[in-house]
Amino acid sequence: MSLLDPQHLISAFGLLGLMAIVFAESGLLIGFFLPGDSLLFAAGLLAPAPLWVLCLAAAVAAVAGDQVGYAFGRRVGPAALRRRAGHYERARQFFDRYGASSIVLARFVPVVRTFTPILAGAVHMHYRTFLRNNVVGAVLWAGGVTALGHFLGRVPFVRGHIELILVAIVAVSVVPVGVRLVRGRAGSGKSSQ
Predict the structure, then answer these.
(1) Pairwise CA distance, residues 158 & 190, whole Å
(2) What is the pTM of this model?
(3) Domain ranges of the chain
(4) At 69, phi and psi to the nearest 5?
(5) How far apart are CA 188 and CA 185, in angstroms?
(6) How far apart are CA 70 and CA 133, in angstroms?
(7) What is the DSSP letter of 29?
(8) Rounded CA gap, 162 and 102, in Å?
(9) Using N-to-C axis directions, what is the helix angle for 162-191 and 6-27, rounded to 10°?
(10) Alpha-carbon distance 161 to 149, whole Å?
(11) DSSP secondary structure string, 131-172?
(12) Alpha carbon of 128 to those of 67, 125, 155: distances in Å?
């Protein structure tokens, strides 16, 4: 599992590797399994570069990844979603209901952050609206999680239990997805009765 181990990735690939992984996780369909949150936290903790450089590099990579995801969704998404009955309309209703702020909030949920820019492009969310929320979300997520790792890394307990902390970060970051799935199943079970 060293290919997904944040400490291994940072020591092996440094700042450019961090940027590549954040880019892929943010907007490429293949990036949904990558360890974004724990990688940023570990980068802040291990500091392969000055904190401001890490935060800036991660935010730039996150914005760029979402831009690619949006462009891909805009080009390919509508046709792909329309082939699956109801998917296009559900995606549009999602953005109508939660607004562009969902772009910011999606940053903090693994897997969701990979697919949200693609869906936003597929339903033709206004580009400036998407870009503004993409930048805000990227700065808050990339800068915030990296800075959190940096400052909490000074706490002896955190530094001494980094593996446990990284596992906890992954677990906490998937809780919203799990809750949503459970609610969805419970709701569909009630509607079928």
Answers:
(1) 43
(2) 0.75
(3) 6-182
(4) -60, -45
(5) 5
(6) 12
(7) G
(8) 31
(9) 40
(10) 13
(11) HHHHHHHHIIIIIHHHHHHHHHTTSHHHHHTHHHHHHHHHHH
(12) 11, 9, 41
Q: Say which residue the tokens 């309309």 belong to.
A: 89
Return the amino acid letter for 48: P
By the 8 A CB rule, do 134 and 100 touch? Answer: no
pLDDT tens by residue, 136-182: 999 999 999 899 888 887 888 877 776 677 677 667 666 665 666 57
d(CA 128, CA 86): 26
CA distances from 53 to 56, 119, 138 (A): 5, 30, 14
What's the token pair of residue 105?
Answer: 């909030």
**For residues 181 and 130, what is the distance between their CA atoms, to the nearest angstrom?**
26
